[in-house]
Specification:
The complex is a heterodimer. Chain A has 31 helices and 11 strands. In chain A, the strands form 3 sheets. In chain A, strands 2-3-4-1-5-6-8 form a 7-stranded mixed β-sheet, sandwiched between helices. Chain A is elongated, with a radius of gyration of 30 Å. The termini of chain A are far apart. Chain B is rod-shaped. Classes of the chains: A alpha/beta, B mainly alpha. At the A-B interface, helix 2, helix 8, helix 13 and helix 21 of A face helix 1 of B.
């Protein structure tokens, strides 16, 4: 068996680290979490010359080894722990040719850990535009490393990088600077106390406010405090260390890098001035949003119709081709329609992530964060709250995790509490199906009413989040603020490969994450809808025969009446009817009630649940949308999903806290049940009242 | 397919589904301690 090299890909944010990871691993990658925490862990395999394989971990972006967030802790913990199975044989530090000076700080720190290190200088294709030239031989000699000049955009330098990785044993592990020079007595004392330890590793353990397994930090601290006495002194030493590193970097770059400003052909400043303009910036962002939502509708309709019809036919085929029985019915009426309820949204989800990924890759998203910061401050939130709020459009769970970067507890708490208002991707299936049922297909100045409704729902969610933040800010009386620094990366043409991988990964996790829950719930729901207690369920046929004895109805109509009677007296029917009085004022029947209750597991379960409930007992080959469109309101008559009940449902889902997992994460992050219970109660009551008002006004 | 087998398959599916839901939402997952080495030494000593 060939030896596998453990390679850690490390770098500052926005250096194209993920592009290098994609170029090395292709599709041989998987995404998970670090144990016990929800920082994303990306790893993959790269085939190297001579049959050697490299196990590559794409570590979270970090500016230095002085951790200030959970993401950065992950990097340090891995680099300090030789017993970790992922401990790198080799560190590949990715830097950006335009920000080499800043990026080299991290590089020199990693060199001091005596891990063989390769320096990747990425985005080499930008050198001409920026008038940059590099003396690679000089840089390699003085940085005591091997350098790969890479352009992932033009697929250049990757082969050299692979060769360097496979020959990693030839790399020097000597330091760039001598850390002990910043305080000779202190470090001498430290080294004498722990003679077998690497001095820089000890220094990091002392200065980082993180846990390092069985490392007795207090023991080392005691030694450190012996000489430096206070944390303030340690901070001053850290500053001296940083200054020393930059002195070294400046010295090296003075000869190793030349920047000819006269040759630079940079449009960035001009573009930035327009798209971050205090008026035009918002107009452009608004137009981009409109275009995205319109495209999601226009481009998805054909594949969605195809998927819907395919699942309806598959269900029918299963019923006709397999021998009759309980399992066949479960497949045809429970599992297949339930799964159809999630697969149908693949095109729209994929298009949404396609646009998000293009905006991120192009560098525009950072400008959006900068733009939104101006608004957020008026509502009492710091700029740091924007990142969780924007990530909340994908899912509230990682977004709430991302609040760990907010140092101020009150600001963090407010962000945690308001993030679930942001329209997450799980709300999308619910919105899409209801919009398609109750909003007409017409257009207004070229924009479809349906797309405009969808965009309004996103804006309503954002509005609810910032308004509640404003109220909470007043109640909780936040006085101190955190600082917010956002890096504006260069504009780039998005790399097709990166966009494709993001879309694939996000869609896959959406389908498989929600798919498993939907499949399980569909099975349980089918049982609850297909069986029931008492004579009303068991003698449904006799009761219906008696009821319609004097009426002339066809055999088909009779069968439908029996199925409807059975469903009403099944376990699910009994439960649904028990909660119906509470939801009837909102314009919903008991079937919608069941769907709302079951979608507490995950919002997208709503559509799958209705698809399963409407399929039970039905012999017709029907699409989900047609089945929902055909439902009649038992009290008022007319379609159940009409404009009033549809808007009421949309608003209910916009404001209600319909997500068990989010509540669990809020509990974990706030370390108390008080906040998730308050959040659940207030959001549900608010959603109920708004949905009630909407239905009563519009009916 | 014999009705008995159909029933067995359907019940097995129900048990799997219930098991999945209970494990996912009601059983507390064991979380490893946030440390660099878990059970192992962190290598700093």
């Amino acid at each position: 068996m060939s030896k596998q090299i453990n390679v850690a890909l490390i770098g500052n944010p926005n250096t194209g680290k993920t592009s290098v990871f994609n170029a090395l691993t292709g599709l041989n990658q998987k995404v998970g979490n670090y144990p016990g925490i929800t920082v994303e862990k990306k790893e993959g395999v790269c085939k190297l010359p001579r049959g050697v394989k490299a196990h590559i971990i794409d570590l979270p972006g970090t500016y230095s080894l002085n951790a200030s967030s959970l993401d950065e802790n992950v990097v340090i913990e891995l680099l300090l722990n030789k017993n970790d199975k992922d401990f790198p044989d080799l560190a590949v530090v990715v830097s950006d040719v335009e920000n080499l000076k800043r990026n080299l700080l991290l590089f020199t720190q990693i060199k001091d850990l005596e891990i063989p290190t390769i320096l990747v200088i990425n985005m080499a294709d930008r050198m001409t535009y920026k008038g940059i030239s590099l003396d690679l031989e000089y840089l390699e000699q003085h940085l005591k490393t091997k350098i790969a000049l890479v352009s992932t955009r033009k697929n250049q330098g990757i082969e050299r990088l692979k060769n360097l990785i496979s020959n990693y044993k030839d790399l020097s592990i000597s330091h760039n600077i001598d850390i002990t020079e910043i305080d000779k007595d202190y470090f001498e004392n430290l080294q004498n106390t722990f003679p077998n330890q690497l001095i820089y590793k000890l220094w990091l353990v002392i200065t980082q406010d993180v846990n390092f397994g069985k490392t007795d930090r207090n023991e080392i601290d005691a030694v450190a405090n012996f000489k430096t006495k206070s944390k303030g002194d340690l901070k001053r030493l850290q500053q001296k260390e940083t200054i020393k590193r930059y002195q070294f970097i400046n010295e090296v770059l003075k000869k190793g890098q030349t920047i000819d400003v006269a040759q630079a052909k940079d449009l960035r400043m001009k573009i930035d001035r327009i798209i971050t303009h205090q008026v035009w910036g918002y107009v452009i962002f608004f137009i981009i949003l409109l275009t995205i939502f319109q495209a999601i509708y226009d481009w998805s309709s054909i594949p969605m119709d195809f998927i819907d019809t395919t699942f309806a036919s598959l269900s029918e085929w299963t019923k006709n081709q397999l021998p009759q029985g309980t399992f066949t019915s479960l497949l045809a009426e429970g599992i297949i329609p339930g799964l159809g309820g999630i697969v149908i949204f693949i095109p729209q989800i994929a298009f949404l992530f396609l646009f998000i990924s293009v905006l991120e890759e192009s560098g525009y998203m950072s400008r959006v964060v900068f733009l939104m910061d101006r608004i957020m401050r008026r509502f009492g939130l710091s700029g740091k709250s924007i990142v969780p709020l924007i990530s909340g459009t994908a899912c509230a769970i990682p977004a709430i995790m991302a609040t760990r970067n907010i140092e101020n507890w009150k600001e963090r708490l407010i962000t945690i509490l308001v993030t679930p208002f942001i329209t997450c991707s799980a709300r999308l299936p619910v919105y899409l199906i209801i919009i398609s049922l109750v909003i007409p297909e017409g257009r207004f100045i070229g924009l479809g009413y349906q797309a405009l409704t969808l965009m309004s729902l996103y804006l309503i969610g954002f509005g609810a989040a910032v308004s509640s933040a404003y109220i909470l800010n007043k109640i909780l009386k936040i006085k101190s603020k955190t600082f917010f620094v956002v890096e504006m990366p260069n504009y780039k043409l998005p790399l097709l490969k990166n966009v494709a991988i993001t879309v694939l990964e996000k869609t896959k996790s959406f389908v498989f994450g929600a798919g498993k829950i939907i499949l399980a719930i569909s099975i349980v729901l089918w049982f609850l809808a297909s069986f029931g207690p008492g004579d009303d369920f068991n003698n449904a046929e006799e009761i219906t025969t008696k009821e319609y004895a004097n009426q002339n109805i066809s055999q088909e109509e009779f069968q439908q009446k029996v199925a409807s009677h059975k469903l009403e007296h099944s376990f699910i029917g009994i439960t649904g009817r028990a909660i119906e009085p509470a939801i009837r004022p909102l314009g919903y029947d008991w079937k919608i009630g069941i769907a709302i209750v079951s979608s507490f597991a995950a919002r997208e379960v709503f559509v799958g649940t209705l698809a399963t409930i409407y399929s039970v007992g039905s012999d017709e080959e029907e699409t989900i949308k047609n089945r929902m469109a055909g439902e009649v309101n038992p009290i008022l008559g007319g379609p159940l999903f009409n404009f009033a009940s549809g808007i009421s449902l949309l608003l209910f889902y916009a404001f209600a806290m319909q997500c068990m997992s989010t509540l669990a994460i809020v509990k974990r992050e706030t370390n108390s049940w008080k906040w998730p219970i308050l959040q659940l109660t207030i959001m549900t009551i608010f959603a109920y009242i708004v949905a009630l008002i909407a239905f009563q006004l519009l009916k | 397919m014999n009705p008995f087998i159909q029933n067995i398959l359907a019940i097995a599916a129900l048990i799997f589904a219930l098991g999945f839901i209970i494990t996912k939402f009601f059983l507390k997952k064991k979380q490893s301690k946030k440390s660099c080495g878990g059970e192992g030494d962190c290598g700093c000593h």
